[in-house]
Amino acid sequence: MTPIESPLREQNALTPQLYVLQLRQDDPKKCTAAKLVRFGLAKPLYKVKQVPVNCLTLNPFAPTSVLNKDQVQALKYGLVAIDCSWERVQTTFSARLPGKNVKLPTLLPSNPVNYAKPNKLSSLEALAASLFIMGFREQVSQLLSMFKWGPYFLTLNAQPLEAYASATDEEQLVSLESEFF
Prior knowledge:
By secondary structure, the chain is α/β, with parallel strands linked by helices. It has one domain. It contains 9 helices and 5 strands. It has a 5-stranded parallel β-sheet with strand order 2-1-4-3-5. The longest helix is centred in the last third of the chain and has 12 residues, at 123-134.
């Protein structure tokens, strides 16, 4: 196995390749994305040019949300999280990012840095939420189990995540989101 191959891909070929664009703006000891890369669960990217052209790119300012139907594109081209500091999020996402840019509906983080602050998810939580909504639940559990606070993310967001995963279009997802938040 090469360092960039994911053990998850070996176990189940029907899971998306995860990528993390590492901008190195956070403390590497607390960085969830860095840990995913260290354990071979995500492939690191260091420049925007390396982001696969047709992937799903998580962008909190995207005009549309991730939906269950995005699973086909994620399987074929991968899912990318942009690992940056929340203090620099406006600047980071003001640039055009490759791929189909999608945002997550409102969720509460369980990470100790931004606990319960709506939408201030770590890269790990953002990837896990996207995978959950698209129906890749086994992969979600494995990712979240890497941190002692990780599984609590599912508990904290159980009802919204289930509802979001059932949404068939953007309009329905927005309606569901307003019910919870």
